[in-house]
């Protein structure tokens, strides 16, 4: 799974990326600091199941093979990508837009970072003293550029493509899926869009407006978007967050402060504080300078105590994966044996797409498990499940094979 961070230059994408991954990336307040896409590992937060099982009379403590666990909060890895800022005209190549859009082909979802301070124009340049700019336009133009990106791919060979489909009686959804195969478009995405839109049955008769309508629907269906309303702790941040949320009711909009999250994670990494990403407070572990105390105090007062989701960075990642993409976290586990051959307790936790069955999960673990599947056993209840049993979030199961 890959989450792509998008937005105009200088909105805090690289700060968000670094806060989520603690990767070393260049951060600066001028356009196109990022040229080559940055790849890193972020983490979604799951209430770990280890505490529900006892070992030697005590709640178990997992030993993740990938990710980590803090106080029974399991952090499961997801891929993140930070691309250079997109500006109006990106789909026509402005600002190296074609290159940056191409970087986003493999993304499952877009996280748009919007700067709530409202201090930069559409190209990420600082506003002059008398210049005015509607920051909500950032969402409008980005949507437009993403739609044009899909539209340009669609119309490259549209006339011959549409007629060929009709003459050869090939399924339209299959043909479109092939055309967009490089963008992770699935046939179900195409079918869902066609169900929602009232378009003429013969695709070869579609006009430019109808083609754009279809491109828009396909983009939203195959690459949904969540908005990270960044710099909510700026002077106009709280006011602008309300404006943004009211204007774009179709999107999940999360208030966040990437700067604050980065500061907290770096302080925790240095052993100065105890901080669990996504929590609304931290604990000071060492003597701090007055400057450090003041900085952490401001974060606590202006961000953590003020907003429901703390800095919001962890909430953005969790909402993207669990609420929008609707993935579930599944643990391979046995009711009688929680550890692997090396003694690691619950070493694995997998993110699986909605509708995953016990058989799907068996194949995910190993092809042989799927081919030789007999049943799955719920680690909690010890009940047996058949191959068609649909899994839910935080299920724990053992695969029994022949």
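Q: What amino acid sequence fits the structure above?
A:
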């Amino acid at each position: 799974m890959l989450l792509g961070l998008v937005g105009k230059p200088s909105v805090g994408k690289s700060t968000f990326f670094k806060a989520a991954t603690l990767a070393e990336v260049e951060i600066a307040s001028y356009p196109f600091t990022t040229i080559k896409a940055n790849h890193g590992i972020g983490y979604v937060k799951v209430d770990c199941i280890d505490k529900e099982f006892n070992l030697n009379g005590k709640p178990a403590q997992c030993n993740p093979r990938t990710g980590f666990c803090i106080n029974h909060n399991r952090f499961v890895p997801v891929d993140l990508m930070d691309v250079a800022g997109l500006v109006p005209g990106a789909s026509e190549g402005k600002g190296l837009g074609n290159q940056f859009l191409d970087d986003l082909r493999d993304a499952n979802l877009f996280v748009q970072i919007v700067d709530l301070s409202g201090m930069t124009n559409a190209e990420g340049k600082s506003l002059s003293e008398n210049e005015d700019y509607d920051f909500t336009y950032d969402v409008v133009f980005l949507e437009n550029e993403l739609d044009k990106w899909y539209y340009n791919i669609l119309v490259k060979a549209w006339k011959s493509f549409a007629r060929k489909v009709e003459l050869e009686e090939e399924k339209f959804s299959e043909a479109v899926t092939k055309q967009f195969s490089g963008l992770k478009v699935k046939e179900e995405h195409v079918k869902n869009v066609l169900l929602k839109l009232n378009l003429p049955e013969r695709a070869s008769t579609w006009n430019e407006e109808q083609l754009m309508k279809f491109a828009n629907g396909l983009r939203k269906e195959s690459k949904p978007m969540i908005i990270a309303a960044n710099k909510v702790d700026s002077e106009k941040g709280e006011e602008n967050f309300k404006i943004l949320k009211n204007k774009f009711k179709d999107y999940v909009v999360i208030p966040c402060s990437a700067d604050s999250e980065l500061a907290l994670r770096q302080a925790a990494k240095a052993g100065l504080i105890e901080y669990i990403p996504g929590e609304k407070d931290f604990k000071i572990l060492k003597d701090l300078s007055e400057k450090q105390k003041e900085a952490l105090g401001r974060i606590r007062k202006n961000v953590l105590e003020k907003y429901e989701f703390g800095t919001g960075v962890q909430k953005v990642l969790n909402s993207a994966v669990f609420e929008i993409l609707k993935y579930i976290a599944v643990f391979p586990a046995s009711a009688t044996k929680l550890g692997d051959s090396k003694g690691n307790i619950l070493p694995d936790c997998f993110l699986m797409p909605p509708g995953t069955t016990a058989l799907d999960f068996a194949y995910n673990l190993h092809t042989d498990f799927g081919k030789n599947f007999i049943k799955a056993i719920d680690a909690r209840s010890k009940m047996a499940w058949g191959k068609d049993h649909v899994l839910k979030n935080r299920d724990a199961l053992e695969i029994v094979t022949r």
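Q: And what stands out in the fold?
A: Residues 328-401 form a domain with the Ubiquitin-like (UB roll) fold (CATH 3.10.20.30).
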